Amino acid sequence: MTKIKYWALVIMGVLLGSTSSYAAGDLKPLPGQKAVRVCADGYNLPYSNREGEGFDNKIAELLGKELGLPVEYYFFPQRIGFSRNTIKKVDPETGLFLCDLAMSIPEHTDFLKPTKPYWSSIEAMVYRKGEGYELNQLKDIATAKKDGKPLRIGIFDRGVATKALLDLGLADQIQYFQMMPGDARVNAGRIINEELAKDTIDVALLWGPIAGYYANESDVPMIVQPLNELGEAFIFSFSMGTRYQDKKWNALLNEFLAKNKDEIDAIMAQYHLPSLENVNPYPKKRVRKDDDD
Fold this sequence. Notes:
The protein has 293 residues and is α/β, with parallel strands linked by helices. Helices cover 30% and strands 19% of the residues.
């Protein structure tokens, strides 16, 4: 063999090796899989809606692109009974489950098998800009009261900041809102675009992604302050969810999340989730053991 032929074979081998390595890294659909079938709420921004405007819509589209499959939705209100009526329900006509992927489910849940989490957030405080007061912590609401400015506080029933507000002696300033009204088309963002923007309350306390999204969408300038004072224990993380028996599908989704982390983070950044910098380290988040699942 001449030296020229030798080096030609070496270079060819390197090229073939590179091509093989690239192909091995590509994600492929499961055998027989014809679509990414997502269970989603059609009226639940910033997560999802029927128009495809939520961050879970965008991430599902990214998944479909990665797998070379169309994305199909089965819409149902994401509240009590969601899993039972979507991902675990069989269509009597086709014999297939109605959908195969639930998104933004708690990272620890017994109802579905979660993937690794792909986003996290914490409760936040929202108020109108330019009202003559600055709120960085919950105690600032109490300070405003002492200064003669008792602020009207809007909070959903069972809100995580409720006890802290009561401990600060602010019970008489709280107005409670129903988290899940009868009309499934009405979501939690109404506390910002209907109550805060229209000056029926002065400050709203609610879940971070909803706070960040609706405050940014509002025509009324608003300030979003994450309640990082609550501590690490109040940071909650969210995953994709599959049926427990769909282990290969769950493993494929974990590969997708790992491979596309930067793109997923970029999508999430478009929705203005409150910053998790400088979260109070206490109380610590409870470390859940593997056998807890």
